[in-house]
Amino acid sequence: MASSDLLSRLDACAATIRQRAPNFTPRLGLILGSGLGAFADSLERAVVIPYSELPDFPRSSVHGHAGRLVLGYHQGTLPVVTMQGRVHFYEGYQPWQVGFPTRVLCRLGIKGLVVTNAAGGINTGFGVGDLMAITDHLNLSGYNPLVGPNDETLGPRFPDMSHAYDPAFLAALRTSAVQENVPLREGVYVSLSGPSYETPAEIRMLRTLGADAVGMSTVPEVIVAAHMGVKVAGISCITNLAAGLSKHKLSHDEVSETADRVKDVFSRLLTRFLSNLGQSV
Ligand code: HPA
Predict the structure, then answer these.
(1) Which residue has its alpha carbon closest to ligand 1 atom 10?
(2) C-alpha to C-alpha distance for 274 and 104, rounded to whole angstroms
(3) pLDDT tens-digit profile of 23-36?
(4) pTM for the predicted model, two decimal places
(5) Active site residue 1
(6) CATH of domain 3-280
(7) Which of 216, 238, 254 to mutate to test the pocket of ligand 1 (most atoms within 8 A of CB)?
(8) pLDDT in tens, 77-94
(9) Which residues pair with 118 in a beta bridge?
Protein backbone atom coordinates (compact mmCIF):
# COMPACT_ATOMS: atom_id res chain seq x y z
CA MET A 1 0.00 0.00 0.00
CA ALA A 2 1.22 3.55 -0.77
CA SER A 3 2.36 5.45 2.32
CA SER A 4 -0.17 8.27 1.71
CA ASP A 5 -2.89 5.63 1.64
CA LEU A 6 -1.83 4.34 5.06
CA LEU A 7 -1.86 7.87 6.47
CA SER A 8 -5.36 8.56 5.19
CA ARG A 9 -6.64 5.25 6.57
CA LEU A 10 -5.08 6.01 9.95
CA ASP A 11 -6.63 9.43 10.04
CA ALA A 12 -10.04 8.16 8.96
CA CYS A 13 -9.95 5.68 11.83
CA ALA A 14 -8.75 8.32 14.32
CA ALA A 15 -11.53 10.67 13.12
CA THR A 16 -14.17 7.98 13.78
CA ILE A 17 -12.84 7.57 17.32
CA ARG A 18 -12.86 11.34 17.90
CA GLN A 19 -16.49 11.50 16.76
CA ARG A 20 -17.41 8.84 19.30
CA ALA A 21 -15.36 10.44 22.09
CA PRO A 22 -15.44 14.17 21.35
CA ASN A 23 -13.01 16.49 23.16
CA PHE A 24 -11.05 13.52 24.44
CA THR A 25 -7.29 13.47 23.87
CA PRO A 26 -5.75 10.38 25.47
CA ARG A 27 -2.34 10.89 27.02
CA LEU A 28 -1.55 7.19 27.42
CA GLY A 29 -2.43 4.10 25.46
CA LEU A 30 -2.65 0.61 26.93
CA ILE A 31 -2.73 -2.66 25.04
CA LEU A 32 -4.14 -5.35 27.28
CA GLY A 33 -3.15 -8.88 26.34
CA SER A 34 -4.70 -12.32 26.83
CA GLY A 35 -6.91 -12.33 29.91
CA LEU A 36 -5.58 -8.96 31.11
CA GLY A 37 -8.38 -6.79 29.75
CA ALA A 38 -10.21 -6.29 33.05
CA PHE A 39 -8.19 -3.19 33.90
CA ALA A 40 -10.20 -1.19 31.35
CA ASP A 41 -13.36 -1.75 33.43
CA SER A 42 -11.99 0.61 36.07
CA LEU A 43 -11.96 3.64 33.75
CA GLU A 44 -14.38 6.47 34.47
CA ARG A 45 -16.76 8.13 32.00
CA ALA A 46 -15.83 5.37 29.57
CA VAL A 47 -16.65 5.27 25.87
CA VAL A 48 -16.53 1.75 24.45
CA ILE A 49 -16.06 1.13 20.73
CA PRO A 50 -15.98 -2.41 19.29
CA TYR A 51 -13.17 -2.81 16.77
CA SER A 52 -15.81 -3.89 14.24
CA GLU A 53 -17.07 -0.28 14.18
CA LEU A 54 -13.67 1.18 13.31
CA PRO A 55 -12.56 1.35 9.66
CA ASP A 56 -9.56 -0.88 8.84
CA PHE A 57 -9.17 -1.89 12.49
CA PRO A 58 -8.23 -5.59 12.50
CA ARG A 59 -10.24 -7.89 14.76
CA SER A 60 -8.86 -10.58 17.02
CA SER A 61 -10.10 -14.11 16.73
CA VAL A 62 -8.35 -15.24 19.92
CA HIS A 63 -10.31 -16.42 22.91
CA GLY A 64 -9.75 -14.00 25.81
CA HIS A 65 -9.37 -10.93 23.58
CA ALA A 66 -12.53 -8.83 23.81
CA GLY A 67 -11.83 -6.72 20.71
CA ARG A 68 -12.88 -3.27 21.83
CA LEU A 69 -11.43 0.12 22.49
CA VAL A 70 -12.21 1.70 25.86
CA LEU A 71 -11.53 5.41 26.27
CA GLY A 72 -11.88 6.95 29.70
CA TYR A 73 -10.30 8.62 32.68
CA HIS A 74 -7.96 6.77 34.99
CA GLN A 75 -8.83 7.76 38.57
CA GLY A 76 -10.94 10.58 37.25
CA THR A 77 -8.17 12.65 35.72
CA LEU A 78 -5.76 10.92 33.35
CA PRO A 79 -7.30 10.38 29.89
CA VAL A 80 -6.30 6.99 28.51
CA VAL A 81 -7.24 4.75 25.62
CA THR A 82 -7.11 1.00 26.14
CA MET A 83 -7.24 -1.83 23.67
CA GLN A 84 -8.97 -4.89 25.11
CA GLY A 85 -7.44 -7.44 22.81
CA ARG A 86 -5.03 -7.23 19.90
CA VAL A 87 -4.36 -9.03 16.66
CA HIS A 88 -1.42 -11.26 15.84
CA PHE A 89 0.47 -12.08 12.67
CA TYR A 90 -0.54 -15.75 13.00
CA GLU A 91 -4.18 -14.81 12.50
CA GLY A 92 -3.29 -14.08 8.90
CA TYR A 93 -2.99 -10.31 8.99
CA GLN A 94 -0.39 -8.40 7.00
CA PRO A 95 2.46 -6.79 8.98
CA TRP A 96 1.06 -3.28 8.40
CA GLN A 97 -2.33 -4.41 9.72
CA VAL A 98 -0.76 -5.74 12.92
CA GLY A 99 0.82 -2.32 13.44
CA PHE A 100 -2.32 -0.37 12.46
CA PRO A 101 -4.09 -0.11 15.86
CA THR A 102 -0.97 1.16 17.63
CA ARG A 103 -0.46 3.73 14.91
CA VAL A 104 -4.05 4.91 15.37
CA LEU A 105 -3.45 5.34 19.12
CA CYS A 106 -0.32 7.33 18.35
CA ARG A 107 -2.25 9.51 15.86
CA LEU A 108 -4.80 10.18 18.64
CA GLY A 109 -1.95 11.91 20.47
CA ILE A 110 -0.78 9.49 23.16
CA LYS A 111 2.59 10.34 24.72
CA GLY A 112 3.23 6.90 26.12
CA LEU A 113 2.15 3.33 25.47
CA VAL A 114 1.89 0.45 27.94
CA VAL A 115 2.04 -2.95 26.28
CA THR A 116 1.10 -6.09 28.17
CA ASN A 117 1.08 -9.73 27.22
CA ALA A 118 0.93 -13.32 28.36
CA ALA A 119 4.28 -15.02 27.93
CA GLY A 120 6.06 -18.29 28.59
CA GLY A 121 8.87 -18.16 31.14
CA ILE A 122 12.26 -19.13 29.69
CA ASN A 123 14.36 -17.87 32.60
CA THR A 124 14.49 -20.80 35.03
CA GLY A 125 14.26 -18.40 37.96
CA PHE A 126 10.75 -17.36 36.91
CA GLY A 127 7.56 -18.91 38.25
CA VAL A 128 4.04 -19.15 36.86
CA GLY A 129 2.13 -15.97 37.71
CA ASP A 130 5.22 -13.73 37.89
CA LEU A 131 5.08 -10.30 36.32
CA MET A 132 8.09 -9.18 34.26
CA ALA A 133 9.01 -5.67 33.20
CA ILE A 134 10.28 -5.90 29.64
CA THR A 135 13.74 -4.33 29.39
CA ASP A 136 14.32 -5.11 25.71
CA HIS A 137 13.20 -7.50 23.02
CA LEU A 138 14.36 -9.92 20.35
CA ASN A 139 12.33 -9.76 17.16
CA LEU A 140 12.48 -13.32 15.87
CA SER A 141 8.98 -13.21 14.44
CA GLY A 142 10.27 -13.08 10.87
CA TYR A 143 8.48 -9.86 10.03
CA ASN A 144 8.48 -6.14 10.79
CA PRO A 145 5.38 -3.91 10.73
CA LEU A 146 7.33 -1.08 9.04
CA VAL A 147 8.06 -3.07 5.88
CA GLY A 148 6.69 -1.13 2.90
CA PRO A 149 6.92 2.47 1.78
CA ASN A 150 7.80 4.83 4.62
CA ASP A 151 5.81 7.98 5.33
CA GLU A 152 8.16 10.54 6.88
CA THR A 153 5.11 12.18 8.50
CA LEU A 154 4.84 9.11 10.71
CA GLY A 155 8.54 8.59 11.39
CA PRO A 156 11.97 7.90 9.90
CA ARG A 157 12.76 5.07 7.49
CA PHE A 158 15.30 3.60 9.93
CA PRO A 159 14.07 4.22 13.48
CA ASP A 160 16.45 3.83 16.40
CA MET A 161 15.55 1.00 18.80
CA SER A 162 18.26 1.58 21.44
CA HIS A 163 15.73 2.72 24.04
CA ALA A 164 12.57 1.07 22.74
CA TYR A 165 11.49 0.48 26.37
CA ASP A 166 11.77 3.90 27.96
CA PRO A 167 14.26 3.97 30.87
CA ALA A 168 12.15 6.46 32.86
CA PHE A 169 9.02 4.30 32.41
CA LEU A 170 11.01 1.26 33.52
CA ALA A 171 12.19 3.12 36.63
CA ALA A 172 8.57 4.12 37.36
CA LEU A 173 7.49 0.50 36.99
CA ARG A 174 10.13 -0.59 39.51
CA THR A 175 9.05 2.09 41.99
CA SER A 176 5.38 1.21 41.54
CA ALA A 177 6.10 -2.48 42.17
CA VAL A 178 7.91 -1.68 45.42
CA GLN A 179 5.08 0.61 46.56
CA GLU A 180 2.48 -2.06 45.84
CA ASN A 181 4.62 -4.85 47.27
CA VAL A 182 4.37 -6.70 43.96
CA PRO A 183 7.43 -8.78 43.05
CA LEU A 184 8.54 -7.63 39.60
CA ARG A 185 10.96 -9.59 37.45
CA GLU A 186 12.83 -7.99 34.58
CA GLY A 187 13.96 -9.42 31.31
CA VAL A 188 14.12 -9.68 27.55
CA TYR A 189 10.98 -10.68 25.64
CA VAL A 190 11.35 -12.65 22.44
CA SER A 191 8.59 -12.65 19.87
CA LEU A 192 7.98 -15.57 17.53
CA SER A 193 5.23 -15.73 14.93
CA GLY A 194 3.43 -18.73 16.44
CA PRO A 195 0.78 -20.04 16.52
CA SER A 196 2.39 -23.34 17.52
CA TYR A 197 4.16 -23.14 20.84
CA GLU A 198 7.92 -23.63 20.83
CA THR A 199 9.76 -26.92 21.02
CA PRO A 200 12.02 -27.58 24.02
CA ALA A 201 15.03 -27.26 21.67
CA GLU A 202 13.82 -23.84 20.54
CA ILE A 203 13.45 -22.75 24.16
CA ARG A 204 17.03 -23.84 24.93
CA MET A 205 18.19 -21.87 21.88
CA LEU A 206 16.20 -18.78 22.92
CA ARG A 207 17.69 -18.91 26.41
CA THR A 208 21.18 -19.04 24.91
CA LEU A 209 20.26 -16.01 22.79
CA GLY A 210 19.39 -14.01 25.90
CA ALA A 211 15.60 -14.31 26.12
CA ASP A 212 13.78 -14.51 29.46
CA ALA A 213 10.19 -14.79 28.21
CA VAL A 214 8.56 -15.80 24.93
CA GLY A 215 5.36 -14.76 23.22
CA MET A 216 3.68 -14.06 19.89
CA SER A 217 2.83 -10.38 20.15
CA THR A 218 3.95 -6.96 21.45
CA VAL A 219 7.11 -6.46 19.37
CA PRO A 220 5.30 -5.03 16.30
CA GLU A 221 3.46 -2.57 18.56
CA VAL A 222 6.71 -1.46 20.19
CA ILE A 223 8.41 -1.00 16.81
CA VAL A 224 5.52 1.12 15.54
CA ALA A 225 5.55 3.25 18.71
CA ALA A 226 9.32 3.74 18.44
CA HIS A 227 8.86 4.77 14.81
CA MET A 228 6.34 7.42 15.86
CA GLY A 229 8.39 8.66 18.82
CA VAL A 230 6.06 7.34 21.52
CA LYS A 231 7.62 6.01 24.74
CA VAL A 232 6.85 2.44 25.79
CA ALA A 233 6.58 0.43 29.00
CA GLY A 234 6.12 -3.33 28.70
CA ILE A 235 4.84 -5.91 31.18
CA SER A 236 4.67 -9.66 30.60
CA CYS A 237 2.61 -11.98 32.71
CA ILE A 238 4.42 -15.30 32.91
CA THR A 239 1.40 -17.51 32.38
CA ASN A 240 3.29 -20.78 31.99
CA LEU A 241 6.76 -22.24 32.00
CA ALA A 242 8.08 -22.44 28.43
CA ALA A 243 8.19 -25.77 26.59
CA GLY A 244 10.40 -28.41 28.18
CA LEU A 245 10.43 -26.72 31.59
CA SER A 246 7.38 -28.41 33.04
CA LYS A 247 5.97 -31.91 32.82
CA HIS A 248 2.60 -30.98 31.38
CA LYS A 249 1.64 -29.87 27.90
CA LEU A 250 1.29 -26.18 27.02
CA SER A 251 -2.24 -24.97 26.45
CA HIS A 252 -4.10 -21.73 25.91
CA ASP A 253 -6.33 -22.72 28.83
CA GLU A 254 -3.35 -22.56 31.19
CA VAL A 255 -2.41 -19.15 29.75
CA SER A 256 -5.94 -17.82 30.30
CA GLU A 257 -6.27 -19.33 33.79
CA THR A 258 -3.00 -17.81 35.00
CA ALA A 259 -3.78 -14.41 33.49
CA ASP A 260 -7.15 -14.51 35.24
CA ARG A 261 -5.52 -15.45 38.56
CA VAL A 262 -3.06 -12.55 38.53
CA LYS A 263 -5.38 -9.91 37.09
CA ASP A 264 -5.90 -8.14 40.42
CA VAL A 265 -2.17 -7.88 41.19
CA PHE A 266 -1.57 -6.82 37.62
CA SER A 267 -4.26 -4.11 37.85
CA ARG A 268 -2.77 -2.86 41.11
CA LEU A 269 0.66 -2.49 39.53
CA LEU A 270 -0.80 -0.77 36.48
CA THR A 271 -2.95 1.58 38.57
CA ARG A 272 0.00 2.66 40.68
CA PHE A 273 2.19 3.05 37.60
CA LEU A 274 -0.34 5.32 35.87
CA SER A 275 -0.80 7.36 39.05
CA ASN A 276 2.97 7.76 39.40
CA LEU A 277 3.27 8.90 35.80
CA GLY A 278 0.36 11.25 36.44
CA GLN A 279 0.86 14.63 34.86
CA SER A 280 4.40 13.89 33.68
CA VAL A 281 3.20 12.24 30.46
N1 HPA B 1 5.04 -19.44 24.12
C2 HPA B 1 4.62 -18.51 23.24
N3 HPA B 1 3.65 -17.65 23.52
C4 HPA B 1 3.08 -17.72 24.72
C5 HPA B 1 3.47 -18.65 25.69
C6 HPA B 1 4.51 -19.57 25.38
O7 HPA B 1 4.91 -20.42 26.17
N8 HPA B 1 2.70 -18.43 26.79
C9 HPA B 1 1.86 -17.40 26.50
N10 HPA B 1 2.09 -16.95 25.25
Answers:
(1) 119
(2) 21
(3) 999 999 999 987 77
(4) 0.95
(5) no
(6) 3.40.50.1580
(7) 216
(8) 899 999 998 999 999 999
(9) 237
